[in-house]
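How it folds:
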Amino acid sequence: MDTPRKLIAGNWKMNGTAAALAEIAAMADAARDLPPNLTVAVCPPATLIDRARVAAGEGPLIVGAQDVHAEPAGAFTGSVSVEMLADAGAKLVIVGHSERRADCGETNPDVRAKAEAVVAAGLTAVVCVGETEAERDAGDALSVIAGQLDGSLPANATRLAVAYEPVWAIGTGRTPTALQIAEVHAAIRSDLIARYGDAGAATPVLYGGSVKPSNATELLHVDNVDGALVGGASLTAADFLAIVRAAVR
């Protein structure tokens, strides 16, 4: 079976204006010296995708998007299609982030439709899953995540990554223990292999939730952790690159 490529992706959320493009340029410059089996991506707000692509130049840094509409076009005011994102230079799209699920009411079928659209367009879909604090405390974390995987994953594992982000760890400074992360990632890996075979064994499984330079080395070397989905620490090149470098130690 193939081993997964490592992937570190930064999710800027609703942060960043043109002044932040210098950070992306610095990330792109440093990414030129990274090993070929490590992919690095940054997902700025949609308003910056085209300019971020220009700032990243022709190097290995990938520019991605934080969300997408499942339909290719139509009367969907304020929404952006996969074709539009690709036209702007995006190569990767985050779908199903817990903030979208909770704040925008996105369901598993909604997430699957978006992931299918992304993969069909030749971009990489990063499908997010994760339990709330109440679900974790009730002992339901694995069953909740299994349901999200079953309802959210596309039929084809080509150009797919899965990100485990416990909702209670996002932006809180809290992180699960290494044993908790290993348990969830092992369950996700088993699901992917059962679902996709060898392609599932090669699908990157990322950890996300308060990843920062001080804990990156520990988190990125837990079994079945193939990278990270990074929030606030991806806003500056210095912090993001410290996490990226931790992946190759």
Notes: The two ends are 24 Å apart (CA to CA).
